[in-house]
Amino acid sequence: MSELKSTKVNWFFACAVEDVPENGGVCVKHGDDQIALFNFTRRGEWYATQNMCPHRQQMAISRGMIGSVEDEPKVACPFHKKTFSLKDGSCLSGDDYQLKTYPVKVEDGKVYIDVK
């Protein structure tokens, strides 16, 4: 017999599409949490991660530069240049750090983040 898992979805309205610069990011507050939200227009994709860089515990990821390594979308911490996958949060710099990632959806010009 298989076990069914319940997946709770908790979408919250983060901002309007025009509030996020093309190929850039912003910081969104949700309760006490800071979330980095990215509009990766070159790829036609949106991503969200924790805003705190796990390397030096600074709230800076939303100000990082986004790009791609091969086909992997990434963000680089603006202070320490550690790079992280925007898909799964893994550190692409070879270090044992991880960013928490969040699903993002865009509907009718509004951006939502799932903070389950």
Verbal overview:
- It is a single chain.
- This protein is mostly beta strands and 116 residues long.
- Helix content is 0%, strand content 47%.
- It has one domain (18-114): Rieske [2Fe-2S] iron-sulphur domain (Rieske Iron-sulfur Protein).
- The protein has no helices and twelve strands.
- The strands form four sheets. A four-stranded antiparallel β-sheet has the order 2-3-4-10, with no helix packed on it. It has a three-stranded antiparallel β-sheet with strand order 1-12-11, with no helix packed on it. It has a three-stranded antiparallel β-sheet with strand order 7-8-9, with no helix packed on it.
- A hairpin with a 2-residue loop joins strand 11 and strand 12.
- The protein starts with 10 loop residues before the first strand and ends with a strand.
- The model has no long low-confidence stretch (mean pLDDT 93).
List the helices and strands and how they pair.
Layout: E1 11-16, E2 24-30, E3 33-40, E4 45-50, E5 52-53, E6 58-59, E7 65-69, E8 72-76, E9 83-85, E10 101-102, E11 104-107, E12 110-114
* Class from helix and strand fractions: mainly beta
Radius of gyration, in angstroms, nearest whole number:
14 Å
- How many structurally independent domains? 1
- What CATH calls the topology is Rieske Iron-sulfur Protein
Q: How does the major sheet shape up? A: 4 strands, antiparallel
Poorly predicted regions:
none
Question: In which order are the strands of the major sheet placed?
Answer: 2-3-4-10
Binned strand content? over 45%
Number of helices: 0
